[in-house]
Amino acid sequence: MAENVAAKPCRLLIGGKWVEGKETMTVIDKYTGETIGVVPVADRGMVDRAIGAAREAFPGWSRTPAHRRFRILEKASHLLAKHQEEIASTICREAGKAWKYSAGEVARAVETFQFSAEEAKRIHGETVPMDASTAGEGRVGFYLRCPVGVVAAITPFNFPLNLVAHKVGPGLAAGNTMVLKPASTTPLTAIRLGEILEEAGVPPGVFNVVVGSGGTVGDWITADPRVSKISFTGSPPVGEAIIRRAGLKKVTMELGNNSGTIVEPDADLDAAVPRCVVSAFANSGQVCISLQRLYVHRSIASEFTKRFVEATAKLKVSNPLEKDCDVGPMIDEGEAKRAEAWIKEAVAEGAKLLIGGKREGRVLYPAILTGVRAEMKVMCQEAFAPLVSLYEYETFEDAVRMVEDSPYGLQAGVYTNDLRKAMYAVEHINVGGVMINDTSIFRVDHMPYGGNKMSGLGREGVRFAVEEMTNIKMVMIKP
Ligand code: NAP
Questions:
Q1: Is residue 292 lining ligand 1, measured as CB closer than 6 Å?
Q2: Catalytic residue among 105, 288, 325, 468
Q3: Which end of the chain has fewer CB atoms at under 10 Å, N or C?
Q4: In angstroms, rounded to a whole number, what is the distance separating the alpha carbons of residues 109 and 353?
């Protein structure tokens, strides 16, 4: 059983010091409601000092040799691995994420920091053939990739460690200094990461953590002219508000999706069915690439549906700390009530609920709907809940058109062994990633990852995040 997290008073990391605040907020176990942490809320002065400290630390850190940044990030990766059980238990409790997925998240963050360490050693520009232009004859040209300065990371609740790692690892690898504002519901993991980075040797001021609501702390950071870049993961409305408020700053936006996956008749159902179950219900469906819209060819729909419902019925809904838990609570009761209302609305509009949909506080039982229409909320908006809609289609082209018919564009999945169909989907679905013979949920941490349309701007996946967190500086030499 995971180590217990005592309700402990936490502090914020500002300029290399662990500081208390005038106000505090409590962090609860999302399953039991028990208080597991008391965290200072940063006031304006604390945010100001955190950004100031990052600014001050920038010249030193940006000139720290790559081999030293490599060693520090590698050590951070080792420390995360060493404390995997304890950190997974914190994620489990503050995010309500089932133990196996919490442990999996720590394992992924270990890799994300390892990739970041390695990337620190290969940040480089290239030469430019200046004499391709008559005006460039006799000149030498090359460009460098330079860190941008202070990077603000604003992160969501659903992966409180690995989505933070996706910003902090590449940001530090590239020589930037950072201010992190984690989600208010899940700040304990972020604070723990601060301790780990300090132990790994990150110098004072290079990495700062401030906690507080998006509307105050998030907004102050966003508007501060000393911040050069905002790397945000969260919902599209907040992302848009940040872009409006940020002014002339670089931004990366990793936003939501109502992910679709197509299952063709030639799919291997023994592989596809269990994978679709995990894709729809892992982390209670609170994953930006969760399977939400499932398009199954009419010829296999009844067999697929039978197996899909049977497998869903076997999921264990329980306290996420139990090692065999499959589905834990949602992040808060308001979100669970909203998803429950969406299910009821769909049913009132003619959809059929095949299983689940019952709510007990923050827990919503995994729900499968059929008989849905494209304009229902469960289809056209991001559900971010343990809720999947099954749609029977006639032709592959129709299914592709329906997956593409979305304001979002993060990832999509297609089960087919027909190469022409696979490539048709790749060509016609405007998303950041198409997963063939898997669902929308597939991700490894070094692949380019990010969305089109309302799903965002820019890409993460360590090397790609480094590109987003560096500026190109052109050098021309006239000998
Ligand atoms: P959220 O409500 O948008 O919050 C994300 C972060 O933004 C939190 O730290 C939040 O602080 C902060 N924030 C809120 N208002 C702000 C403002 N006005 N200015 C600056 N910061 C502000 O998202 P969430 O509910 O935590 O996460 C769910 C969303 O994230 C879903 O839409 C999901 O698809 C998306 N997501 C996308 C990806 C991806 O990689 N594309 C990955 C994971 C999640 P508070 O916590 O204090 O409100």
A1: no
A2: 288
A3: C
A4: 37
